[in-house]
Specification:
Elements (H helix, E strand, L loop, with lengths): L1 H14 L3 H4 L4 H14 L5 E5 L5 H8 L3 E6 L2 H11 L4 E4 L12 E6 L10 H11 E12 L4 H8 L5 H7 L1 E6 L2 E8 L3 H8 L3 E8 L11 H4 L2 H14 L11 E8 L1
Parallel strand pairs: 1-2, 1-4, 2-3, 4-5
Antiparallel strand pairs: 5-9, 6-7, 8-9
Amino acid sequence: MMEEIIKHKFFWDLYASIYDENRRHEEYLRNTNLNILKTYFRPGQTLIEIGCGTGIEAKEMIKHGCKVVLTDVSFEMLKVAKTKVGSNAQVINLPAEYIDSFKIKFDGAYSSFGVINCMTNVSSFFQKLHSILKPGSLFIASFINRWYWGDFLFFLFGITNYLKKRLNGWGHITLNGKEYDVIARFYSLNDIKRFSKSYFVIKKVYALPFLLPPAYLKPQERLPEKLFKLLQKLENLINYRFPFNYLGERIIVIFERI
């Protein structure tokens, strides 16, 4: 486990200085994710963010009125995050695998955009997270889904080759076209249910996205604005309904701590 954590630390340290610029095409997904976080978490709650990256979500949740403790495996990511949150939040260099290092109980937790995909033992993570959350508190996580319907379509038309990685259940992470010795694992919603069932119950599931193209295809740049907005409206009507919520490119899951 430690060897893989070190590899992830190296990769995310390397990525930190250009992360915000490279992920601008995800803004439409981040807005959806933030709206969900703000819907379920109340001002005044003390939250822990697991894998905060450059602090994009934390900054907004602090504005929402929450107290946020930011954690990440990457010291360089945390340096960027610190410039966003300043003295308004505590910033701690801590891998998700050691989240039980805290001796206090939080009102809630969240982990956005695939931190779970970078873990080797997700069941152990849920057990450790359970130990630092208050009974009945929420954990909101978004992760890359193993079963995304669009990959079959995109593969058929030669647009992307992500289908093979998802069917294999894992793949190496790439940055600016270069593949690194860092692995991301792809989990289905049923996998996540199995990993978490002893510690959390699932309250609601959203696709992120189902109907809109995924962020790596940069739909806001490629699609006419009117078509993009229409798809976005339709997305909001179906992204929490079965079976669409099981088949998004990413999935947001609302967990309640048992």
